[in-house]
Design brief:
Layout (H helix, E strand, L loop, with lengths): L3 H19 L16 E4 L3 E5 L12 H14 L7 H5 L2 H14 L3 E5 L2 H12 L5 E5 L4 H14 L2 E5 L4 H9 L7 E6 L11 H11 L2 E5 L14 H4 L8 E5 L10 E5 L1 H10 L1 H4 L6 H16 L1 H20 L11 E7 L1 H13 L2 E2 L2 E2 L9 E6 L6 H18 L4
Parallel strand pairs: 2-11, 4-5, 4-6, 6-7, 7-8
Antiparallel strand pairs: 1-2, 3-9, 8-9, 10-13, 12-13
The structure holds pyridoxal-5'-phosphate.
Protein backbone atom coordinates (compact mmCIF):
# COMPACT_ATOMS: atom_id res chain seq x y z
CA UNK A 1 0.00 0.00 0.00
CA UNK A 2 1.49 3.38 -0.99
CA UNK A 3 1.47 6.22 1.56
CA UNK A 4 -1.69 8.38 1.57
CA UNK A 5 0.20 11.55 0.61
CA UNK A 6 1.43 9.88 -2.60
CA UNK A 7 -2.07 8.59 -3.36
CA UNK A 8 -3.54 12.05 -2.89
CA UNK A 9 -1.00 13.61 -5.24
CA UNK A 10 -1.39 10.91 -7.88
CA UNK A 11 -5.18 11.24 -7.70
CA UNK A 12 -4.93 15.01 -8.15
CA UNK A 13 -2.58 14.96 -11.12
CA UNK A 14 -4.55 12.08 -12.66
CA UNK A 15 -7.79 14.08 -12.45
CA UNK A 16 -6.15 17.16 -13.88
CA UNK A 17 -4.55 15.27 -16.76
CA UNK A 18 -7.97 13.79 -17.59
CA UNK A 19 -9.44 17.31 -17.56
CA UNK A 20 -6.73 18.57 -19.93
CA UNK A 21 -7.63 15.77 -22.35
CA UNK A 22 -11.38 16.48 -22.03
CA UNK A 23 -10.86 20.19 -22.65
CA UNK A 24 -8.58 19.39 -25.62
CA UNK A 25 -5.71 21.35 -24.06
CA UNK A 26 -3.47 18.33 -23.46
CA UNK A 27 -0.11 18.88 -25.13
CA UNK A 28 1.07 15.95 -27.17
CA UNK A 29 4.82 15.81 -27.77
CA UNK A 30 5.97 15.23 -31.33
CA UNK A 31 9.35 13.53 -31.66
CA UNK A 32 11.84 14.63 -34.29
CA UNK A 33 14.35 12.22 -35.73
CA UNK A 34 16.81 14.79 -37.09
CA UNK A 35 18.04 18.33 -36.45
CA UNK A 36 15.79 21.39 -36.40
CA UNK A 37 15.57 22.51 -40.01
CA UNK A 38 12.82 23.73 -42.37
CA UNK A 39 12.08 20.07 -43.16
CA UNK A 40 12.59 17.33 -40.63
CA UNK A 41 11.49 13.74 -40.09
CA UNK A 42 8.88 13.46 -37.37
CA UNK A 43 8.39 10.06 -35.77
CA UNK A 44 5.37 8.35 -37.28
CA UNK A 45 4.73 11.12 -39.80
CA UNK A 46 7.68 11.18 -42.18
CA UNK A 47 9.03 14.46 -43.53
CA UNK A 48 7.24 17.58 -42.38
CA UNK A 49 7.78 21.32 -42.79
CA UNK A 50 8.41 23.04 -39.47
CA UNK A 51 6.65 26.35 -39.20
CA UNK A 52 6.76 26.80 -35.44
CA UNK A 53 10.38 26.96 -34.40
CA UNK A 54 12.64 29.72 -33.09
CA UNK A 55 15.37 28.60 -35.49
CA UNK A 56 15.04 32.02 -37.12
CA UNK A 57 18.37 32.05 -38.92
CA UNK A 58 18.54 28.32 -39.57
CA UNK A 59 21.69 28.01 -37.45
CA UNK A 60 20.58 24.87 -35.55
CA UNK A 61 21.80 22.73 -38.43
CA UNK A 62 24.50 25.02 -39.85
CA UNK A 63 27.70 22.91 -40.27
CA UNK A 64 29.95 25.72 -38.96
CA UNK A 65 27.93 26.01 -35.75
CA UNK A 66 27.83 22.26 -35.17
CA UNK A 67 31.59 22.01 -35.80
CA UNK A 68 32.27 24.76 -33.26
CA UNK A 69 30.23 22.88 -30.65
CA UNK A 70 32.18 19.68 -31.32
CA UNK A 71 35.48 21.54 -31.14
CA UNK A 72 34.56 23.01 -27.77
CA UNK A 73 33.47 19.58 -26.58
CA UNK A 74 36.86 18.14 -27.56
CA UNK A 75 38.81 21.02 -26.08
CA UNK A 76 36.92 21.63 -22.83
CA UNK A 77 35.23 18.28 -22.21
CA UNK A 78 31.65 17.30 -21.56
CA UNK A 79 30.88 19.14 -18.36
CA UNK A 80 31.62 22.24 -16.34
CA UNK A 81 31.54 20.12 -13.16
CA UNK A 82 30.45 22.89 -10.83
CA UNK A 83 29.12 26.39 -10.53
CA UNK A 84 31.29 29.12 -11.99
CA UNK A 85 32.98 30.60 -9.00
CA UNK A 86 34.02 27.21 -7.72
CA UNK A 87 35.45 25.65 -10.87
CA UNK A 88 33.09 26.09 -13.80
CA UNK A 89 34.39 29.14 -15.69
CA UNK A 90 36.27 28.46 -18.89
CA UNK A 91 38.00 30.85 -21.22
CA UNK A 92 35.27 30.20 -23.76
CA UNK A 93 32.71 31.72 -21.36
CA UNK A 94 34.74 34.93 -21.23
CA UNK A 95 35.07 35.01 -25.04
CA UNK A 96 31.36 34.34 -25.53
CA UNK A 97 30.39 37.05 -23.06
CA UNK A 98 32.62 39.61 -24.80
CA UNK A 99 31.08 38.64 -28.18
CA UNK A 100 27.53 38.93 -26.82
CA UNK A 101 28.20 42.35 -25.27
CA UNK A 102 29.64 43.56 -28.58
CA UNK A 103 26.59 42.18 -30.40
CA UNK A 104 23.96 43.91 -28.29
CA UNK A 105 25.98 47.09 -27.70
CA UNK A 106 26.74 46.95 -23.99
CA UNK A 107 29.91 47.12 -21.91
CA UNK A 108 29.65 43.54 -20.65
CA UNK A 109 27.48 40.46 -20.50
CA UNK A 110 27.05 37.43 -18.27
CA UNK A 111 25.85 34.03 -19.50
CA UNK A 112 23.31 31.85 -17.70
CA UNK A 113 22.03 28.31 -18.27
CA UNK A 114 18.92 29.81 -19.90
CA UNK A 115 17.27 33.16 -20.45
CA UNK A 116 14.68 31.99 -17.95
CA UNK A 117 17.52 31.95 -15.38
CA UNK A 118 18.88 35.28 -16.62
CA UNK A 119 15.48 36.97 -16.20
CA UNK A 120 14.88 35.25 -12.89
CA UNK A 121 18.22 36.50 -11.59
CA UNK A 122 17.64 40.17 -12.32
CA UNK A 123 14.95 41.78 -10.12
CA UNK A 124 15.47 39.57 -7.10
CA UNK A 125 19.22 40.24 -7.06
CA UNK A 126 19.09 43.95 -7.86
CA UNK A 127 16.08 45.28 -5.94
CA UNK A 128 15.13 45.80 -2.31
CA UNK A 129 12.08 46.94 -0.35
CA UNK A 130 12.56 50.59 -1.37
CA UNK A 131 12.36 49.80 -5.09
CA UNK A 132 9.77 49.25 -7.82
CA UNK A 133 9.59 46.98 -10.87
CA UNK A 134 6.99 47.48 -13.62
CA UNK A 135 6.29 44.89 -16.31
CA UNK A 136 4.42 45.03 -19.62
CA UNK A 137 1.19 43.03 -19.37
CA UNK A 138 2.24 40.64 -22.18
CA UNK A 139 5.79 39.97 -21.01
CA UNK A 140 7.14 36.44 -21.11
CA UNK A 141 6.34 34.02 -18.27
CA UNK A 142 9.96 34.10 -17.08
CA UNK A 143 9.65 37.83 -16.38
CA UNK A 144 6.31 37.38 -14.62
CA UNK A 145 7.76 34.68 -12.38
CA UNK A 146 10.97 36.67 -11.82
CA UNK A 147 8.88 39.56 -10.51
CA UNK A 148 6.78 37.29 -8.30
CA UNK A 149 10.01 35.92 -6.81
CA UNK A 150 11.47 39.38 -6.27
CA UNK A 151 8.28 40.57 -4.56
CA UNK A 152 8.17 37.57 -2.23
CA UNK A 153 11.84 37.75 -1.29
CA UNK A 154 12.82 41.41 -1.38
CA UNK A 155 9.39 43.02 -0.67
CA UNK A 156 9.96 45.40 -3.58
CA UNK A 157 6.88 47.07 -5.04
CA UNK A 158 5.64 45.55 -8.30
CA UNK A 159 3.16 46.52 -11.00
CA UNK A 160 1.96 45.70 -14.47
CA UNK A 161 1.31 48.33 -17.15
CA UNK A 162 -1.09 47.81 -20.03
CA UNK A 163 0.53 46.26 -23.08
CA UNK A 164 2.58 48.94 -24.90
CA UNK A 165 0.60 51.69 -23.13
CA UNK A 166 3.16 54.44 -22.47
CA UNK A 167 0.58 56.67 -20.80
CA UNK A 168 -0.16 53.95 -18.25
CA UNK A 169 3.56 53.44 -17.66
CA UNK A 170 4.05 57.19 -17.24
CA UNK A 171 1.23 57.40 -14.69
CA UNK A 172 2.58 54.48 -12.68
CA UNK A 173 6.11 55.87 -12.62
CA UNK A 174 4.82 59.34 -11.69
CA UNK A 175 3.08 57.78 -8.69
CA UNK A 176 6.32 56.11 -7.54
CA UNK A 177 8.49 59.14 -6.71
CA UNK A 178 9.38 57.65 -3.33
CA UNK A 179 10.98 54.55 -4.89
CA UNK A 180 14.78 54.48 -4.92
CA UNK A 181 15.33 52.22 -7.95
CA UNK A 182 12.66 51.91 -10.63
CA UNK A 183 13.03 49.06 -13.11
CA UNK A 184 10.83 48.76 -16.19
CA UNK A 185 10.88 45.44 -18.07
CA UNK A 186 9.55 44.81 -21.57
CA UNK A 187 9.95 42.11 -24.16
CA UNK A 188 11.61 43.50 -27.30
CA UNK A 189 9.38 41.31 -29.48
CA UNK A 190 6.23 39.86 -27.89
CA UNK A 191 6.13 36.17 -28.68
CA UNK A 192 2.37 35.62 -29.04
CA UNK A 193 1.75 38.74 -31.14
CA UNK A 194 5.03 39.26 -32.93
CA UNK A 195 4.65 42.95 -31.96
CA UNK A 196 7.75 45.09 -31.41
CA UNK A 197 8.07 47.16 -28.21
CA UNK A 198 8.00 50.94 -28.70
CA UNK A 199 11.60 51.32 -27.59
CA UNK A 200 11.96 55.08 -28.21
CA UNK A 201 8.75 55.68 -26.24
CA UNK A 202 9.78 53.37 -23.39
CA UNK A 203 13.18 55.02 -23.10
CA UNK A 204 11.67 58.51 -23.09
CA UNK A 205 9.24 57.66 -20.28
CA UNK A 206 11.95 55.85 -18.29
CA UNK A 207 14.40 58.75 -18.62
CA UNK A 208 11.71 61.24 -17.59
CA UNK A 209 11.16 59.34 -14.33
CA UNK A 210 14.73 58.18 -13.67
CA UNK A 211 13.79 54.55 -14.30
CA UNK A 212 16.05 51.85 -15.76
CA UNK A 213 14.86 49.92 -18.80
CA UNK A 214 15.37 46.17 -19.22
CA UNK A 215 14.55 44.71 -22.64
CA UNK A 216 14.22 40.94 -23.13
CA UNK A 217 15.35 40.49 -26.73
CA UNK A 218 14.91 36.71 -26.90
CA UNK A 219 12.81 36.95 -30.09
CA UNK A 220 14.77 39.95 -31.43
CA UNK A 221 18.43 38.90 -31.18
CA UNK A 222 19.49 37.78 -34.64
CA UNK A 223 16.13 38.91 -35.97
CA UNK A 224 15.61 42.68 -35.69
CA UNK A 225 17.80 45.45 -37.06
CA UNK A 226 19.72 45.43 -40.34
CA UNK A 227 22.42 43.16 -38.87
CA UNK A 228 20.28 41.27 -36.33
CA UNK A 229 21.51 43.07 -33.23
CA UNK A 230 18.03 43.36 -31.83
CA UNK A 231 15.34 45.86 -30.93
CA UNK A 232 17.82 48.67 -30.21
CA UNK A 233 19.39 48.32 -33.65
CA UNK A 234 15.92 48.22 -35.24
CA UNK A 235 15.26 51.69 -33.80
CA UNK A 236 18.81 53.00 -34.34
CA UNK A 237 19.32 53.10 -30.55
CA UNK A 238 22.12 50.59 -30.03
CA UNK A 239 23.83 51.15 -26.70
CA UNK A 240 20.93 53.12 -25.19
CA UNK A 241 19.09 50.31 -23.38
CA UNK A 242 20.27 49.96 -19.77
CA UNK A 243 19.99 46.18 -19.55
CA UNK A 244 19.35 43.61 -22.28
CA UNK A 245 18.51 39.98 -21.61
CA UNK A 246 18.31 37.38 -24.34
CA UNK A 247 18.48 33.70 -25.14
CA UNK A 248 21.01 31.60 -27.00
CA UNK A 249 18.20 29.10 -27.59
CA UNK A 250 16.49 30.77 -30.54
CA UNK A 251 18.23 32.56 -33.43
CA UNK A 252 21.73 32.06 -31.98
CA UNK A 253 22.07 28.37 -32.72
CA UNK A 254 19.03 27.35 -30.77
CA UNK A 255 20.69 25.10 -28.20
CA UNK A 256 20.30 26.59 -24.74
CA UNK A 257 21.57 29.36 -22.55
CA UNK A 258 20.83 33.01 -22.00
CA UNK A 259 22.54 36.18 -20.90
CA UNK A 260 22.23 39.52 -19.20
CA UNK A 261 24.04 42.42 -20.89
CA UNK A 262 24.72 45.79 -19.33
CA UNK A 263 27.47 47.60 -17.47
CA UNK A 264 30.62 45.89 -16.14
CA UNK A 265 29.49 46.63 -12.60
CA UNK A 266 26.04 45.11 -13.16
CA UNK A 267 27.48 41.88 -14.59
CA UNK A 268 30.08 41.73 -11.82
CA UNK A 269 27.36 42.19 -9.18
CA UNK A 270 25.26 39.41 -10.73
CA UNK A 271 28.34 37.18 -10.74
CA UNK A 272 28.76 37.88 -7.01
CA UNK A 273 25.15 37.66 -5.92
CA UNK A 274 22.68 36.10 -8.36
CA UNK A 275 21.62 32.69 -7.19
CA UNK A 276 21.46 30.96 -10.61
CA UNK A 277 25.17 31.94 -10.96
CA UNK A 278 26.09 30.87 -7.46
CA UNK A 279 24.12 27.64 -7.29
CA UNK A 280 23.78 26.28 -10.83
CA UNK A 281 26.37 24.98 -13.29
CA UNK A 282 27.80 27.24 -15.97
CA UNK A 283 26.68 26.95 -19.57
CA UNK A 284 28.17 23.75 -21.08
CA UNK A 285 31.25 24.61 -23.17
CA UNK A 286 29.90 22.89 -26.25
CA UNK A 287 26.87 25.18 -26.12
CA UNK A 288 29.10 28.20 -25.50
CA UNK A 289 31.21 27.19 -28.52
CA UNK A 290 28.20 26.90 -30.82
CA UNK A 291 26.72 30.15 -29.53
CA UNK A 292 29.97 32.02 -30.10
CA UNK A 293 30.20 30.64 -33.63
CA UNK A 294 26.59 31.83 -34.14
CA UNK A 295 27.54 35.38 -33.11
CA UNK A 296 30.48 35.32 -35.55
CA UNK A 297 28.22 33.86 -38.24
CA UNK A 298 25.66 36.59 -37.71
CA UNK A 299 28.35 39.28 -37.89
CA UNK A 300 29.65 37.82 -41.17
CA UNK A 301 26.26 37.14 -42.77
CA UNK A 302 23.84 40.05 -42.51
CA UNK A 303 22.20 38.65 -45.65
CA UNK A 304 20.66 35.90 -43.48
CA UNK A 305 18.79 38.53 -41.51
CA UNK A 306 17.63 40.17 -44.74
CA UNK A 307 16.45 36.80 -46.05
CA UNK A 308 14.53 36.17 -42.83
CA UNK A 309 12.78 39.51 -43.26
CA UNK A 310 11.98 38.76 -46.94
CA UNK A 311 10.61 35.33 -46.10
CA UNK A 312 8.42 36.71 -43.32
CA UNK A 313 7.09 39.50 -45.54
CA UNK A 314 6.32 37.01 -48.33
CA UNK A 315 4.53 34.54 -46.05
CA UNK A 316 2.46 37.21 -44.31
CA UNK A 317 1.37 38.73 -47.63
CA UNK A 318 0.51 35.38 -49.21
CA UNK A 319 -1.52 34.29 -46.18
CA UNK A 320 -3.57 37.47 -46.40
CA UNK A 321 -4.11 36.88 -50.12
CA UNK A 322 -5.50 33.43 -49.29
CA UNK A 323 -8.07 35.13 -47.06
CA UNK A 324 -6.46 34.46 -43.65
CA UNK A 325 -6.07 37.16 -41.02
CA UNK A 326 -2.40 37.24 -40.04
CA UNK A 327 -1.61 39.95 -37.49
CA UNK A 328 0.14 42.84 -39.20
CA UNK A 329 3.79 43.26 -38.29
CA UNK A 330 7.43 43.16 -39.29
CA UNK A 331 8.70 40.13 -37.38
CA UNK A 332 8.91 36.45 -38.42
CA UNK A 333 6.28 35.61 -35.78
CA UNK A 334 3.05 35.55 -37.78
CA UNK A 335 -0.04 34.71 -35.74
CA UNK A 336 -3.06 33.67 -37.82
CA UNK A 337 -6.20 34.41 -35.82
CA UNK A 338 -8.90 31.73 -36.20
CA UNK A 339 -11.17 32.54 -33.23
CA UNK A 340 -12.06 29.66 -30.94
CA UNK A 341 -9.45 27.47 -29.23
CA UNK A 342 -10.97 24.29 -30.63
CA UNK A 343 -10.65 25.73 -34.18
CA UNK A 344 -6.96 26.48 -33.63
CA UNK A 345 -6.26 23.03 -32.26
CA UNK A 346 -8.22 21.32 -35.06
CA UNK A 347 -6.47 23.39 -37.69
CA UNK A 348 -3.07 22.58 -36.23
CA UNK A 349 -3.94 18.83 -36.33
CA UNK A 350 -5.13 19.00 -39.93
CA UNK A 351 -2.04 20.94 -40.99
CA UNK A 352 0.15 18.28 -39.44
CA UNK A 353 -1.74 15.67 -41.43
CA UNK A 354 -0.82 17.74 -44.49
CA UNK A 355 2.84 17.71 -43.38
CA UNK A 356 3.05 21.19 -41.83
CA UNK A 357 3.89 21.56 -38.14
CA UNK A 358 2.49 24.74 -36.64
CA UNK A 359 1.18 25.01 -33.11
CA UNK A 360 -2.26 26.34 -32.15
CA UNK A 361 -2.57 28.59 -29.09
CA UNK A 362 -5.87 29.26 -27.36
CA UNK A 363 -7.36 30.67 -24.17
CA UNK A 364 -5.93 31.23 -21.50
CA UNK A 365 -2.56 31.72 -23.26
CA UNK A 366 -4.21 34.33 -25.51
CA UNK A 367 -7.48 36.26 -24.94
CA UNK A 368 -10.81 34.45 -25.47
CA UNK A 369 -11.90 34.44 -29.14
CA UNK A 370 -8.40 35.15 -30.49
CA UNK A 371 -7.07 31.60 -30.68
CA UNK A 372 -4.37 31.40 -33.27
CA UNK A 373 -1.82 29.42 -35.17
CA UNK A 374 1.53 30.95 -34.53
CA UNK A 375 3.67 30.63 -37.63
CA UNK A 376 7.37 31.29 -37.23
CA UNK A 377 9.40 31.80 -40.34
CA UNK A 378 13.08 31.01 -40.79
CA UNK A 379 15.72 32.38 -43.14
CA UNK A 380 16.36 28.73 -43.97
CA UNK A 381 12.86 28.20 -45.43
CA UNK A 382 13.01 28.04 -49.21
CA UNK A 383 10.24 29.56 -51.31
CA UNK A 384 9.17 25.98 -52.04
CA UNK A 385 8.85 25.25 -48.30
CA UNK A 386 6.75 28.35 -47.81
CA UNK A 387 4.59 27.73 -50.88
CA UNK A 388 3.89 24.13 -49.85
CA UNK A 389 2.93 25.34 -46.39
CA UNK A 390 0.64 27.98 -47.93
CA UNK A 391 -1.06 25.34 -50.08
CA UNK A 392 -1.68 23.25 -46.95
CA UNK A 393 -3.06 26.32 -45.14
CA UNK A 394 -5.41 27.00 -48.02
CA UNK A 395 -6.71 23.42 -48.16
CA UNK A 396 -7.20 23.16 -44.40
CA UNK A 397 -8.65 26.67 -44.10
CA UNK A 398 -11.29 25.88 -46.73
CA UNK A 399 -12.09 22.53 -45.14
CA UNK A 400 -12.74 24.24 -41.80
CA UNK A 401 -14.54 27.20 -43.33
CA UNK A 402 -11.94 29.64 -41.98
CA UNK A 403 -11.43 30.96 -45.53
CA UNK A 404 -13.67 30.66 -48.57
C1 LIG B 1 10.74 36.53 -24.36
C2 LIG B 1 11.38 35.29 -23.81
N1 LIG B 1 12.17 35.37 -22.74
C3 LIG B 1 12.77 34.29 -22.21
C4 LIG B 1 12.58 33.04 -22.74
C5 LIG B 1 13.25 31.85 -22.11
O1 LIG B 1 14.37 31.53 -22.86
P1 LIG B 1 15.21 30.19 -22.53
O2 LIG B 1 14.62 29.13 -23.38
O3 LIG B 1 16.62 30.53 -22.88
O4 LIG B 1 15.04 29.94 -21.07
C6 LIG B 1 11.76 32.89 -23.86
C7 LIG B 1 11.56 31.54 -24.44
O5 LIG B 1 10.49 31.15 -24.82
C8 LIG B 1 11.15 34.04 -24.42
O6 LIG B 1 10.35 33.94 -25.47
Amino acid sequence: MRPTATNALEARVGTQLAEFREQAIYKRLNYLEGPQAPRVRMEGRGEIIILSSNNYLGLCAEPEIIAAGKEALDRYGAGTASVRFICGTFTIHRELEAALARLVGTEASLSFGSCWNANEALPVTLLNEHDLVLSDQLNHASIIDAIRLAKAITKCQTGVFEHKNLQDLDTRLAAAKDRQVKLVISDGVFSMEGAIADLPGLLEVCRKHGALLVVDDSHATGVLGPTGRGTAEHFGMLGEVDIVTSTLGKALGGAAGGFVAGSEALCDYLTQRSRPQLFSNALPCTVAGSAMASVHYLEAHPERVARLRDNARYFRRQLAELGFKPLAGETPIIPVIVGETSAAIRMSELLLEEGVFVTGFGYPVVPQGTARLRCQISAAHSRQDLDEALTAFSRVGRKLGVVS
